[in-house]
Structures are given as structure tokens and as C-alpha cells.
Write a structure and sequence with these properties.
seven-stranded antiparallel sheet, alpha+beta, elongated, 352 residues
Length: 352
């Protein structure tokens, strides 16, 4: 979890880069930008809003040989070691981004590089480096008094409600390549920002493992439980899986299997499916890990708990009280109509 409420912008450097393949220039400012209180408030909202609204998927710097060979890792480490060098190092960061701006679709834009203090991540107060880029320009009107009339002035500028690209590099977990958050609203070249410039990969922590294992369970339910049983059992399997994650602080695979898989015949199927599919989810040897509650909450919102019938009727299962579906919903076959049916027991209808 992160907290950006008390974050202070200690330094801000603003540069501009074009598309190198089109021979567009790079402009590096000589001095850091001097902020006032009003502009600071606007920029903090512009820079940080996407990270407050976005699910926390962390990254870390990486390199095929060693993270020390990642050029951006080296530069940000130098800034963390000597914050007064932030502006001069910001020129190197901007030049590095310019060198990667060679895809024909990459747009020119302004680059903002900030050194930040008083951020909180994983309940620890730390510093961070923010790298942001504005690309899209929007039309707006300005008005100017000319004598007894108002003059319309058509101008273009940056929309402060939408950050095009950005990342927060926290001075935290350096030995793993720092914890990094990234946003990219304009995905015309998905490799440009994350792979070519930042050079990052997913940060494998409890948040990562919880998400990956739950996604693995979701696919197992769809690919194995549904064909072997029915839609109700697919939904109920995921219901039990989600609730197991929600009520435990730590995951242990054998306990999970015993509690979540009702049909013993599916246990070897589960183990085989994991062996076969594990590389896709990065869970090959994963049998124990701490559970991230935020990841469980996010996954619960995405998992469908509704049975859609071809008679235009929906049956919605309750993820909070799965025993209700087990006790009060039955599936059967009507010989006369030659159709399946669900029998639902209840005492009275609930008011909206």
C-alpha cells in the first residue's frame, strides 16, 4: 500500500523530447523549475491521481545479466545517494528516454522529473523519483479584453486531468531493483515505456503471488471444473477459493486444496493443471506465501459469480455466504420438457 498524501516535491526538472526517428530535437532545461504553492498543488494532483486510482501492480528494474547494468537503475541510485544531483541526472534520464523514442508512433512531449519526499510504502516512509511525460495536446479557449469586446484565443495545452505516462520509483527494496509503479494511458507502443525505457519486470511479492495464484484458479475453474461438472460448480469453486484467500493471512497449498476442492477426483486434475500451466503464471514452485488482502479484494470484483442461462435468466451467487448456494440451489433434469432446471429454496423474497 502507498500513501501520497503528505508527499513533497523537493525538485522539479522539465525537459522536452521529440521523436528521434523523425529527427525531432531534444530540449534540456539548464535549471530546475521553481514551484509556487498553487502550481505545486496542481502538479501533485496531475502526477499522483492515476496512482491513487490504479490497482497497485509493482515492477522492479531488471537486466538479463544483473540489475546493476540497467542504465536507469544506476541513475536513480545516484540520485537517491545524492538528491542535490537530481536536476543534472534528470538530463541523463531524459536523454535515455529520447534514445528510446524511435518508433514512428511515439509522440513528442514534455518530460517532468521530480525528487519526492515523505511518501509511504509498505508502512515505511521513504523518498521517490517521479518520471512523467505529457504527450497529447488539447484545444482550449482563452479570452482577452480588447476595448469593448472580448477576443477569442485558440490555444493548445496539457490536460491536467489525464497523465499520459508516468512512474514512481520508490527508494525501497533496492536489492530487488526498487519497487516501481507505472501508468501508461496511450498504449500505441506498449514496449516503449516499460521495456525499452524503464527496463522493468513484475515485482514478485505477496501481491504478485496472490494475483497470479487466483488467476490460475480462475482458469482452472473455467478449463477443468466447468467441463467436468457444471457452471454452478465452477462459480462455487471460485467462491470457496476467494473466501479461503480472504480469511487467511498466509497461503499453504495442501490446506487450500483440502478446503476448496469438494470433488476428490479433481485434486489430481488440479495438480496436473498446475504442472502444465504454472510457467504461464510464474507459480512453478509456489506452495506457500503471504496473502495480500488488496489483491484479494481486487480479484473478487473481477470474478463473475453469475450463472447466465439461455432462457434469459441469471442466477447470482453470493461470494460472502457460499453455503447458501450449496444448501438452497439444486440442479436437475426435467424429462417432460427435456431441459435442465435450477431449484432455488427460500423463505421469503427480500426487498430491494
Amino acid at each position: 500500500m502507498i500513501n501520497l498524501y503528505s508527499t513533497q516535491i523537493e525538485s522539479l526538472s522539465i525537459h522536452r523530447i521529440g521523436n528521434k526517428s523523425r529527427n525531432e530535437n531534444i530540449f534540456l532545461s539548464d535549471s530546475p523549475y521553481k514551484l509556487n504553492d498553487e502550481l505545486t498543488a496542481l502538479l501533485k494532483e496531475y502526477f499522483f491521481k492515476p496512482f491513487r486510482e490504479k490497482e497497485e501492480n509493482y515492477f522492479q528494474f531488471a537486466n538479463e545479466v544483473d540489475v546493476e547494468f540497467n542504465p536507469l537503475f544506476k541513475i536513480v541510485t545516484e540520485i537517491f545517494d545524492n538528491p542535490s544531483s537530481a536536476h543534472e541526472k534528470s538530463k541523463r534520464i531524459t536523454s535515455l528516454l529520447y534514445e528510446q523514442s524511435q518508433h514512428p508512433h511515439i509522440k513528442s512531449g514534455e518530460v517532468y522529473i521530480t525528487y519526492l519526499e515523505n511518501l509511504t510504502i509498505d508502512n515505511e516512509k521513504t523518498s521517490a523519483i517521479g518520471i512523467f511525460k505529457s504527450e497529447l495536446k488539447y484545444d482550449f479557449l482563452q479570452f482577452e479584453e480588447k476595448g469593448t469586446d472580448l477576443e477569442l484565443l485558440h490555444q493548445q495545452g496539457v490536460n491536467l486531468n489525464k497523465l499520459d505516462k508516468g512512474c514512481l520509483i520508490f527508494n525501497h527494496k533496492k536489492e530487488e531493483g526498487y519497487k516501481i509503479l507505472s501508468v501508461d494511458s496511450n498504449k500505441y507502443d506498449t514496449k516503449y515505456w516499460l521495456e525499452h525505457f524503464l527496463g522493468v519486470e513484475a515485482f514478485e511479492d505477496e501481491n504478485f503471488y496472490t494475483k497470479k495464484y487466483m488467476k490460475f484458479c480462475q482458469d482452472f475453474a473455467k478449463d477443468v471444473v466447468l467441463p467436468a461438472e457444471d457452471k454452478k460448480e465452477e462459480v462455487m469453486f471460485m467462491n470457496r477459493a476467494v473466501n479461503h484467500f480472504a480469511k487467511n493471512d498466509a497461503f499453504e497449498e495442501s490446506a487450500f486444496i483440502n478446503e476448496v476442492i469438494d470433488n476428490p477426483d479433481l485434486i489430481p486434475e488440479f495438480k496436473h493443471y498446475k504442472t502444465e500451466k504454472a510457467p504461464k503464471y510464474h507459480i512453478e514452485d509456489l506452495t506457500e506465501f503471504n496473502i495480500a488482502n488488496t489483491a484479494v479484494t481486487a480479484a473478487r470484483k473481477k470474478i463473475k459469480n453469475t450463472i447466465n442461462l439461455d432462457t434469459n435468466i441469471q442466477i447470482k451467487m453470493d461470494f460472502i455466504n457460499p453455503e447458501s448456494a450449496e444448501k438452497f440451489v439444486e440442479k436437475g433434469w426435467d424429462e417432460e420438457k427435456q431441459m435442465y432446471y435450477y431449484l432455488v429454496y427460500f423463505n421469503k423474497e427480500q426487498k430491494d
